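hey so u asked for the seq, here:
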Amino acid sequence: MIIRPACVGDVEAIAAVIEPFVDDVICSEEGRERFKPHMLKHIFERDLIHYFVAEINQKIVGNVAYVHPAHLMHFFLKPEYHGQGFGRQMWEFIESEIMQHEPEHITVNSSFYALDIYKKFGFEIVGELTQQWGIHYIPMKKQVNKYIN
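ran it, structure tokens below
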């Protein structure tokens, strides 16, 4: 697997990776609209968003992004690649990127579908089910271990 910075030319492939999970994330048509290619293009206009795609054999199979400094924004992997360690590779990559900013914690707004995955990565639920922007999510946080000399 190769993970590289995403570009505007990748939005159709990014949307295709996200599409199988949209119904798990949205609570209205406003939310569905947020995951369409024409809306995803706006992500690349925001300096604080760092977006990456994961490729296997030069085909985009996953995407992962964070908002500076430490909020995991997107983490999607095509279903046929689940359970093979690719998600773990993506997580280790994005965690390493985020850790360069030396955060005290990493946050994510999880779908019900992804709760167990994020728990495996060390996240804990820190809030109630929330609905915003046509999306429903559960706030989660991962404390980052700081080593004291």
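The first strand starts at residue 2 and ends at 5. The chain has a mean pLDDT of 95.
lmk if thats what u needed
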